[in-house]
Amino acid sequence: MAHMTFDLLPALAGFALVSSITPGPNNVMVMASGANFGMRRTVPHILGIGCGFVVMLLLVGLGLARLFEMFPVIRLVLTVVSALYLLWLAWKIANAAPVGSNSGRGRPFTFLQAALFQWVNPKAWMMALSAITLYAPGDSTGALMLVAAVFGIVNLPCVSAWAGLGTQAARWLSNPARLRAFNYTMAACLLATLAPVLVAEFVR
Length: 204
What we know:
Blueprint (H helix, E strand, L loop, with lengths): L1 H6 L1 H13 L3 H13 L1 H26 L1 H5 L1 H23 L16 H7 L4 H14 L5 H29 L6 H17 L2 H8 L2
């Protein structure tokens, strides 16, 4: 099956690019982090996303996804936990302190926090399950490794670009009112990423 994945490498790279660079919880959060804390302090967040998603992709491909088929309640619990956690994160973004503030109202994600976040990130689950189904079907470890490698290579610059956008906007956002409006907008965008997941899970 691995040789079939090599044949589909351009399609796999395109899928990884589109799914990694389009808006989602990770990208919204790193953009807000770049704007509020700067690029340097956002680097651990960026690296945690890339490494965390690759590990998640490998574990799901090695059999973790079968748990959803055997025990559907696990998916429901994960959806509820994800929704509650994203609600909390949206509140944190909306109330993030500006760069240089000593209020302590907000801190950038650490590497470990960003890596663990992938397990409650609805878009990450969608990306992992879709990539495995389309490009690493069956039990081919080689195909799965290739899929993980492609996502690892493509994901980093995509997420970094979003953080860079936030960093570039930081000067314009030096005005407290603009920063507050930006953070509220980012929080709303983060909440909006939940809508398709909740509709798919609870609206039949």
